[in-house]
Design goal:
Length: 129
């Protein structure tokens, strides 16, 4: 509530702090999404590592198998790297977009509420003379 056109009151500051806290919570949630994406990528890398070990063992049997397994391993590593970059980038973009949308919506709500508070006029009953 504004008093005599002055600055934001305690309630206003508390409301703004709540908006900031919610935005920080949204960012934390976004970071959790990124962490989940990174965990998925780590699992994929473990699977690829196992596949590479198997490929190496089989590649020792014949030169042709070695060439094929090397090509497959390189393709898998490239695919995993690309998938990791894409997953992390998409998760970060989504998280940032959600955090921004939340922060903007909350800021707009706060601004509207503050504007409504400014427009309220307290009408006092007439003072008898």
């Amino acid at each position: 509530m504004y008093v005599d056109g002055g600055g934001c009151s305690f309630e206003c500051v508390v409301a703004e702090a709540a908006v900031v806290a919610e935005a920080e919570a949204a960012v934390a949630e976004a970071e959790a999404v990124v962490a989940e994406a990174e965990a998925v990528v780590a699992e994929a890398e473990a699977v690829v590592a196992e596949a590479e070990e198997t490929a190496v063992a089989e590649a020792e049997e014949t030169a042709v198998a070695e060439a094929e397994e090397t090509a497959v391993a390189e393709a898998e590593e490239t695919a995993v790297a690309e998938a990791e970059e894409t997953a992390v980038a998409e998760a970060e973009e989504t998280a940032v977009a959600e955090a921004e949308e939340t922060a903007v919506a909350e800021a707009e709500e706060t601004a509207v509420a503050e504007e409504q508070k400014k427009r309220r006029v307290i009408i006092s009953p007439p003072v008898p003379l």
